[in-house]
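Whiteboard transcription, Tuesday session. T.W. wrote the structure tokens on the left side:
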């Protein structure tokens, strides 16, 4: 458990990876679509995706010739349980997590209020 927890927190420590998770909150995405908004190579994005995959935060699946990424929200459960042990944190609410990521990244929320 502690190794998994370390992987999750290490993955969340990087702003690029947090932004990728925010993007995947909307829907599954092809790796090339994940890479689009970033000013870095596809190889660099792939390294970030590997870290997220190893932490269990996302899964990757080959569909034809395209590799797809999918958010695995249950991976945050262990981190949430660990933080609850300090009595200062609520369980992870994915809607609240999405709002946090949106605010943190300064990106406008799509379809807000609908």
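and on the right, the sequence the group agreed on:
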């Amino acid at each position: 458990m502690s190794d998994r927890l370390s992987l999750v927190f290490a993955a969340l420590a990087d702003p690029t990876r947090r932004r990728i998770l925010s993007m995947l909150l909307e829907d599954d995405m092809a790796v090339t679509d994940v890479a689009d908004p970033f000013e870095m190579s596809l190889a660099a994005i792939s390294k970030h995706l590997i870290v997220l995959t190893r932490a269990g935060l996302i899964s990757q699946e080959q569909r034809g010739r395209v590799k797809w990424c999918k958010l695995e929200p249950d991976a945050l459960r262990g981190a949430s349980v660990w933080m609850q042990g300090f009595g200062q944190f609520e369980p992870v609410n994915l809607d609240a997590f999405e709002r946090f990521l949106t605010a943190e990244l300064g990106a406008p929320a799509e379809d807000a209020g609908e």
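Someone added at the bottom: The longest strand covers residues 58-63.
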